[in-house]
Amino acid sequence: MAHPVPSAPKRTPLTASVGSAAPGHHSLPTVEEISAGGVVVDTSTSDLNVAIIARFNRGGRLEWCLPKGHPEGRESNEEAAVREVEEETGIKGRVLATLGSIDYWFTVSGHRVHKTVHHFLLEATGGLLTIENDPDHEAVDVAWVPLADLGRKLSFPNERRIVDLAREVLPGHV
Q1: Cα 157 to Cα 49: distance, rounded to the nearest angstrom
Q2: For residues 46 and 56, is the Cβ–Cβ distance under 8 A?
């Protein structure tokens, strides 16, 4: 009777970066990062406009993305999302629902970063669209984009999936 051959363990970004360095080579240390942000919707418009930001990536390419940032002090992810949305877009919002989390890996300054971003659906409650209050000066532009057009504007597939979730959840809150 033939026995199945066990498959090799799956190489994930974590296992690829630890324990697999050749002799004499050191693997990169891994840092965990948490951010929070969201889809802030102006429910007073028929197009359900969403505020998004543009920033330059490390390679100098312009990317349109959802506003997000790191929690400060003892802030909850929800509180951080509300603050970051307002700082990066100028729009105040209140959380309507949790949309889920995404995670990804990147390498910077001699270490790997495993980043988890918690997303929330927010209803715009006031403010004016501006990047002037962004303390990190990461955002270089900000725009209202109709919810239906957001998938074509956002740079990252994982953020487009978050917007799809927002589309599903939003009717229960409007």
Answers
A1: 19
A2: no
